[in-house]
Amino acid sequence: MKDAELKIINDFHNLYHMGLSGKGSIYKSTTWMGVPCFKCPLDMWIYQEILLEIKPDLIVETGTYMGGSALYLAQICDILQNGKVITIDIDKRERRDHPRVEYITGSSIDPSLVEAIFVNNSTAKKVLVILDSDHSEQHVIKELELFSKYVSVGSYMIVEDSNLNGHPTYSSHGPGPWEAVQQFIKKYKNFEVDKNRERFLMTFNPNGYLKKIN
User: What does each C-alpha distance from 82 to 16, 54, 187 come to in angstroms?
Assistant: First the structure.
C-alpha cells in the first residue's frame, strides 16, 4: 500500500472515530435494531462472514454495554440456525432479551467465572471469542491468556479496538489492545493474525483478528 493511500485511510479513520470538529464520535451513533452498538460497520460485515464460515456453537463476548453487538450476533445465529452468545460485563442493566443470548455479570478476567462458562457449555465444539471490555494492555493480556485455550482450532479470538493508542487513532489512550496482541502473538504460536479480515481498509481491530491454527 502506498503512503498516500495509507494516509487517506488513517485520516478517515480518525475522523470516524474521533468525530468532526464539534460533532463528537461518529461511531457512537451506531445502532443495531435500535440498540446502541459501538462498532465499525465494516467490522460487523466481517463478523457475519466469519460466522457463516465457522458456524460457531458458542460465541463469548466480553464487554456488553447495551447489548447491541450481542443482539447482532444472535440474529446472525438465527439466520444460520445455530449458535449461542454469552456476553460478560461488570455492569448489570436492562438489555434486549433474545433466546440465544445469555448475559453474565462479572469480570472477564475472573478465572473461575471464565472456566464455569466453558464447563457449562462443554458440548460446544466450535467456539469464537470477542474481547471488547477494559482496553488497558494488562487487562487484555489477561483476557487473551484466559480465553485462548477455549477457542476452537480454525476459529477466532477477535481483539477489538486495537486501533487505539495511535494505531491509528486516539494516540493519548496509552498502551492497550494493540500492545497486548503484540505480546500475545510472540508467545502463543498457535494463533496468527488474519490480515484478510482487514481488507475493507478501515477496521477498529487492526492485527486483532487472531485465528487459531493448531
Answer: 33, 11, 33
Length of the chain: 214
Strands 58-62 and 127-131, sheet pairing? parallel
Do 150 and 86 meet the contact criterion of CB atoms below 8 Å apart? Answer: no
32/117 Cα distance (integer angstroms): 26
Q: List the grid coordinates of 12.
A: 478517515
pTM (2 decimals)? 0.97
In which residue are the cell numbers 433474545 written? 98
* Four-point Cα dihedral 73, 192, 164, 147, nearest 10: 60
- Cβ 17 vs Cβ 135: under 8 Å: no
pLDDT, tens digit, 9 for 90 and up, residues 103-161: 999 999 999 999 999 999 999 999 999 999 999 999 999 999 999 999 999 999 999 99
Right CATH number for 31-212 from 3.40.50.150, 3.30.1340.30, 3.40.50.300, 3.20.20.210?
Answer: 3.40.50.150
DSSP string, the chain: --HHHHHHHHHHHHHHHH-STTT--SGGG-EETTEE--S-HHHHHHHHHHHHHH--SEEEEE--TTSHHHHHHHHHHHHHT--EEEEEESS-------TTEEEEES-TT-HHHHHHHHHHTTT--SEEEEE-S--SHHHHHHHHHHHGGGSPTT-EEEETTTTTTTSSS-TTS-S-HHHHHHHHHHH-TTEEE-GGGGTTS--S-TT-EEEE--
